[in-house]
Amino acid sequence: MLADPGSITDVDGIAVGHHQRTGRGWRTGTTMVLAPHGAIAGVDVRGGGPGTRETDALAPWNLVDQINAICLTGGSAYGLRAADGAMSYLAARDLGYRVGPEPGQVVPVVPTAVIFDLGRGGSFANHPDASFGERACRAATHRQHRRGSIGAGTGAMAGGVRGGVGMASCTVALTATDATPATTVTVGAICVVNARGSLIDLASGKPHVSVHGLRRPTPADRTALVDYIARRSLPSLNTTIGVVATDAAITRPEATRLAMSGHDGLARAINPVHTLADGDTLFAMSTRRIDIGDVDRVARLSQIQSAAATCVAHACVDAILAATPAVNAESYGSLCPSALR
Question: What is the pTM of this model?
């Protein structure tokens, strides 16, 4: 039995919701990561073909000091409209950057990144709109553990097999200093894996990143996997996007560094990564619940950044393992069932 890798919602103050549509030419969706009480945020874009919105607002030197939501969505550039629905949801709850004294006088800032999944359900014209973002917000919960072929990962493919949404979390024990007591912070990640590169080592039939409880597939299953991928025409447009979150109280520049560290996890899990045809983008969020002090802060931040890379790597693998097959799209589990037993 595979161990539960955890969820980004294990971070206090983070909620996640999904909305997707399949069938009749549809295979796409949207995932919202919410921080109803606000979060410091940062972003790092590495891929050569990104599709994003409001990423400049997260620069440490710009005006907006916190956000309430990040949108991850299918639909390529068309899917950026899903953020409109999230804005409506937040504005109705008086959440956003305040520009006036009256209720509702806010401008919600919803940073967004997209994956390319156009036409994977059969119709190129079917992609998320504002209703997807609003419905994903309404579905959000602080105890979200659903993953796989849902939300923004509904139309995802990765290295020839079906991709999806994956999550992981861990705790980080920060040792005591003369000025700061020992404390424990939580780091979590959610990734939408739609990579051109592969997460699977075809020589072994297992992911590049070791996962507790995953078995080596039988020779027959590994052969089936290799043969299937060899027959596939890999998509030319891709992207892996996601969010790293923590309850550690970090600054906006530190949140940007946290997003940068998350890309180390992508590099461990996906080969090749950050190609010209990928739009790889990672956001970071801090709900600032736990003070990590100023003494030995660099060492403590290094621990948190290391955990972020690990969580992102495991979230990517989680997406592949949790994905389910669809028409013309086999999953790792359907090709290598012996590895998951």
Answer: 0.97
